[in-house]
């Protein structure tokens, strides 16, 4: 028997190799039988890796290599030729007994020794059978595993090393032919014809109907499916989709798909996207992708790998525990130091609270003083209202006087014609002047009374001038208006004087009386001007008081905000105290918070000193300040008091000017 009479079929398990073996075995010139597994042992010993046996096959392989290198022969292929002759002699009896010319050795795992087989049997024919890896795994799960997923460890090499072998490019081998399981099922006639042409055998289409042929039932290979059919059935192409209905197996198939990757699928000649879409559709039909469960990678770990993984995890866990213990001790020491520091800070905070209580008592006393001053201002407002009524009455008298002056002008115009009636008019005028003198005396008395009231008001206003300095600009503007009115009144007086001079020119007898009246009018005008100026200042004071009331209301709003901040800081302080009592996992956050609290206490000490210094010069400002304890509220009070201090200094400068 020669090596050109050998046919090797190589594939992954569950790839349809038994079906193809049945078809080829039906040829009149091909003999085959159950998987021989004949060549794995002698040729696998020539490999340098992947060897594992109880007798240490690595040492055995090294020994064989050394033995072959020292053979007293110059033939480099001596071992291969002797192996070829030896195993051909084992194939020959079966072939001779069958009376056929070719022997088909279908052992799927010959992919492990493909190169060694090529070297040992260079003239043999090789058939490489492909099948979708997803279908291969699904068939393993259905036929061999049957829910005992730990059995997948036995097929790890097939699922990965076998697939890696199939990614090779076999076009360089003239004695190798590639067959795809899916194409064999779809078009068996064309595929078998191409196979027989490759084997240089006559085409026998009847081989496709393998079920009609008599044959033995083999030890290895597909135990059920092949024997249930009589010819290839295309329904088996997508049979692996049925396994996707089981969540556990769908997860394993999905893990296998993504473990191989899109590049490997392309090299195998299959579509990664199509397989992924089939799995995604199955997820959607069965309520989503399965969660949990053991991954394919963990199932395929060997016992040695699992032991190493557990040992590595235990060592890492011990190191982590030791590190955590050291960190815990360090954190406990830091916590003790922080607790001691916290005690000292708490004592300091209580001391500061006492100082704040003293300051709040002083503020309460100031509030009472301000309330007393407000009562005085209200009494003054009542007096001012009475004065306004008197001034309105005086305005009526002034208007009446203006009307009299107009009448006098008319009388002067008719004076030349009415000289005869002059004596009578003079008498009447004397009577009017006497009455007017009485009115002027009465008005003088009223003005004296008003002057006294105005003096009291001026004294009160002077006491309030410290608080009303910001209104000086407005008062100056009003002073300009008063001056303008004074100028108008002076112009009017000059006009009256001119008219009086005309009257004196016409009537020398009334000159003295007119001059006296004019002198009294001047005095009245001056007093009216003073009253108007005082009235303007009082109105300005009223507006200033209203502005201060608005400012006080704004300060009350700011203080309410400070109280809200105090409540929030109280909550933060209680949360901070609770965090200090928590486990070591929160210690770093508690330490950071304590450092921040320490900084805030230091800022409070400096700010409180500034507040006490800034408030020594404040005397008359109204402020409703309620108790507060926390740092952020103190900062708001400090900025507020600094603003008041600046305003106070500006008012003092303006008063000095």
UniProtKB/TrEMBL annotation:
Coiled-coil annotated residue ranges, if any: 307-355
Molecular-function GO term, any one: protein-tyrosine sulfotransferase activity
UniProt name for this protein: Sulfotransferase
Pfam families: Sulfotransfer_3
Gene3D superfamilies linked to this entry: P-loop containing nucleotide triphosphate hydrolases
InterPro entries named in the record: P-loop_NTPase, TPST-like
Keywords: Coiled coil, Transferase
Keyword Disulfide bond: no
